[in-house]
């Protein structure tokens, strides 16, 4: 196990360094000087030059990267050019909203997909299975910004059950917070469940053909117990992996959903930074999100190895 | 000796067989192909069709219901919806086909080389792919569009580059599964050069799964382009694009939901069609399914 962790960490660190390098290079190498982009087309060359010196842009590239990296390691992501707000502070202030959104979405998606997958796997090939598999396939073709519009139209415009946009902090008004989160979380969950359902379904169909399932049946165990206990346990490993892989898509989805429903999360911070050309915030958010994504995937790998001894032994 | 009649007979038989095989894919596959063909033809001949201008505004005819002058009505600036949908298809399809082409060419080549030569090259390619995959794609696309500026070309490049990792993985996996086969060994034993083996022996066996994946990538690209345009970071207005139209239609949801729903319906049907065709081809070229 220790050997396995060491191998994975040995892989994690170069990837993290490459992520910082790529984030930095995107901001530095792309055409259009940062100072120029900030000041706009009408800026005088002197003003651009002064700003460049102010921001340290006249230093060599590798020196700027090292300086930036040392700051990042110490938790200093720099300050917003617009508001002077520390970048890391801005990110951390908005993180809970995004995390709440993604967590609610993932739980909802699991709550939809697990029962459906079990029922489909138990009666694979039957009419219920074919209808659900068909719906899941079709749902894969509805992007979440489209689903968001449809849900807003149905629940906010036609039925008037839920607010279309707006956010209430949980500490101020718990019920209002939940009401504001229902549609955004549902939008993301609707994009997630088909993926989870398809993987879990095919996994379970394979598991149900194993000998120990036949054994459990022969012992006379109830089929519900076989499905939910004996079959779901090994399949849940696959589910964890898929959930981990899907986090990247979930983050992208959160950017869109936060924008549509006006939730003050990290996605909106990123979009706001793009619209106002606040490149320090932009760079900080991209790095934070990418690094977080890499680390979460690493943790998922670890969890996988803890749960399944075959994985950690195969890597020796 | 084969007579002309026998050759003609076999041609006819081949044609009927091909048709029977296509029919076996089912009516859904046929419908999907038909929709794709219709959209591609409409988008390609948009200038020739008797359509009103997609960008001319008419403030006296805002959010009009479908009529003889405007078959699908007008949007909130009085622009013809049908014209915008057709011209929007042109932008969506241009990006959706050119961007995965970048991924197919670069990612496919990298994956085949990595899977065939293995060693240090493979480590480098797989590592590079992992780094690119470390960024949530939409976040990276947004960031790069913000720095580069919003043009059709930039949009195509960035989505194309983002599609390279997936193509590399598909190509490498397909190459690994055939690189050790006997016919490769036989070609090498007969003294074929590496280039010849790659192009004449390996490529024909790898190209089908790659093409099937290409169609699925087209579907994904339509969605990504739509998302960027929806957020106002795709092709700049007033050029119509489906994602942008859905975003604009949002403001008229209370009065004229049609303005958001029509482009949504077009995008859904197109993405679904590419998914159906791509998935069918993937299933028929996937060796794991057996020789079904």
Mind describing the biggest β-sheet of chain A?
A: none
What level of helicity do the residues of chain A show? over 70%
Q: What is the subunit organization of this protein?
A: heterodimer
Q: What is the number of strand segments of chain A? A: 0
Structural class of chain B: mainly alpha
The largest sheet of chain B is: none
Structural class computed from helices and strand pairing of chain A: mainly alpha
Q: Total number of helical segments of chain A?
A: 13
On the 0 to 100 scale, the average pLDDT of chain A is 82
- End-to-end separation of chain A in angstroms reads 9 Å
Flag low-confidence runs of chain A.
Answer: none
Describe this entry's structure for a reader:
The complex is a heterodimer of chains A (316) and B (292). By secondary structure, chain A is mainly α. Chain A contains 13 helices and no strands. In chain A, helix 10 runs antiparallel to helix 12. Chain A starts with a helix and ends with a helix. The mean pLDDT of chain A is 82. Chain B is elongated, with a radius of gyration of 23 Å. Chain B is mainly α and 292 residues long. The model of chain B has no long low-confidence stretch (mean pLDDT 82). Chain B has helices at 4-24, 27-44, 81-117, 119-133, 137-148, 152-179, 182-189, 194-230, 242-249, 258-285. In chain B, 73% of the residues lie in helices and 0% in strands. At the A-B interface, helix 1, helix 7, helix 10, helix 11 and helix 12 of A face helix 4, helix 5, helix 8, helix 9 and helix 10 of B.
């Amino acid at each position: 196990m220790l050997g396995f962790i060491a191998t994975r960490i040995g892989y994690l660190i170069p990837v993290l360094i490459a992520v910082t390098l790529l984030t930095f290079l995107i901001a530095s190498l792309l055409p259009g000087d940062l100072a120029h982009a900030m000041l706009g087309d009408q800026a005088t060359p002197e003003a651009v030059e002064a700003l460049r010196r102010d921001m340290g842009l006249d230093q060599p590239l590798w020196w700027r990267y090292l300086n930036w990296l040392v700051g990042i390691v110490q938790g200093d992501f720099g300050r917003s050019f617009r508001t002077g707000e520390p970048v890391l502070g801005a990110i951390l202030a908005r993180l809970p909203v995004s995390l709440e959104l993604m967590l609610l979405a993932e739980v909802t998606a699991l709550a939809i997909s697990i029962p459906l997958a079990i029922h489909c796997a138990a009666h694979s090939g039957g009419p219920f299975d074919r209808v659900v598999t068909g719906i899941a396939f079709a749902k894969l073709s509805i992007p979440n910004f489209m689903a968001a519009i449809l849900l807003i139209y149905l629940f906010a415009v036609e039925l008037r059950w839920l607010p279309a946009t707006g956010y209430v902090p949980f500490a101020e008004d718990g019920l209002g917070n939940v009401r504001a989160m229902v549609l955004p979380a549902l939008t993301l969950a609707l994009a997630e469940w088909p993926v989870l359902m398809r993987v879990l379904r095919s996994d379970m169909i394979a598991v149900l053909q194993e000998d120990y399932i036949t054994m459990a049946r022969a012992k006379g165990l109830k089929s519900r117990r076989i499905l939910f206990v004996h079959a779901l346990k090994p399949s849940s490993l696959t589910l964890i992996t898929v959930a981990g892989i899907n986090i990247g898509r979930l983050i992208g989805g959160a950017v869109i959903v936060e924008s549509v429903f006006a939730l003050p999360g990290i996605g909106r911070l990123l979009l706001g930074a793009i619209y106002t050309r606040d490149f320090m915030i932009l760079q900080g958010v991209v790095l934070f999100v990418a690094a977080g994504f890499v680390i979460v995937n690493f943790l998922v790998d670890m969890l996988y190895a803890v749960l399944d001894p075959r994985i950690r032994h195969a890597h020796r | 000796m084969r007579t002309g009649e026998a050759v003609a007979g076999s041609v006819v038989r081949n044609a009927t067989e091909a048709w029977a095989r296509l029919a076996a894919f089912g009516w859904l596959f046929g419908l999907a192909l038909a929709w794709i063909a219709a959209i591609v033809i409409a988008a390609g001949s948009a200038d020739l069709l008797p359509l009103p201008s997609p960008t001319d505004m008419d403030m006296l005819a805002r959010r009009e219901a479908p009529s003889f002058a405007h078959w699908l009505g007008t949007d909130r600036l009085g622009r013809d919806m049908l014209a915008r949908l057709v011209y929007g298809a042109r932008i969506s399809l241009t990006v959706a086909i050119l961007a995965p082409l970048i991924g197919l060419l670069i990612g496919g080549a990298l994956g085949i080389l990595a899977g065939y030569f293995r060693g240090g090259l493979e480590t480098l390619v797989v590592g590079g792919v992992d780094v690119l995959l470390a960024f949530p794609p939409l976040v990276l696309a947004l960031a790069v569009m913000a720095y580069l500026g919003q043009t059709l070309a930039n949009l195509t490049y960035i989505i194309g580059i983002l599609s390279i990792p997936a193509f590399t993985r598909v190509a490498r996996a397909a190459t690994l599964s055939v690189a050790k086969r006997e016919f490769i060994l036989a070609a090498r034993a007969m003294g074929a050069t590496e280039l010849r083996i790659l192009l004449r022996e390996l490529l024909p066996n790898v190209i089908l799964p790659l093409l099937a994946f290409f169609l699925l990538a087209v579907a994904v690209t339509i969605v990504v382009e739509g998302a960027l345009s929806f957020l106002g970071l795709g092709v700049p207005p007033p050029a119509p694009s489906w994602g942008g139209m859905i975003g604009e239609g949002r403001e008229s949801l209370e009065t004229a939901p049609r303005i958001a729903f029509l482009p949504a319906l077009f995008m859904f049907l197109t993405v679904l069609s590419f998914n159906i065709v791509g998935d069918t081809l993937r299933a028929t070229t996937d060796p794991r399914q057996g020789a079904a």
